[in-house]
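Hello, quick one for you while I still have it in my head. My current little project is about how a certain protein chain folds up. You're getting the sequence in one-letter code plus the fold written as tokens. Would you mind checking whether the tokens look sensible for this chain? Here's the protein in full, and shout if anything looks odd to you:
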Amino acid sequence: MLKRSEGSKRYDLDERTLQFAKDIRAFVKLLPRTIANEQDIRQLVRASGSVGANYIEASESLSKKDFVMHIKISRKEAKESRYWLRLLDTGENDSADKTRDALIQEATELTNIFGAIVRKSE
């Protein structure tokens, strides 16, 4: 989980978004099972998977308008993932807190990348 070094973050977005979703799934297995966490985890898992799914849709789009729409959805889902991550209760587990911080950072970077793609595409 999140083992790549700073220099190796420049790999293709298909793989990066897939890894983000996998890292989220591994992370949520470590969290306390409270009523609130159960609901927030469901939302987080959906949003994190949607980041990559919409990026794949954008890559296969038939028009520029369709491409931009799917990239915007990927950006929205990355932002939403960051929101759900911030809401989760880690049970005051330092290791889980550090992992959550790294995942929030990755969601932020993905948001920024997709934002840049939108700006260059419009």
Summary: Residues 94-121 form the longest helix (28 residues). DSSP finds four helices and no strands in the chain. The mean pLDDT is 93.
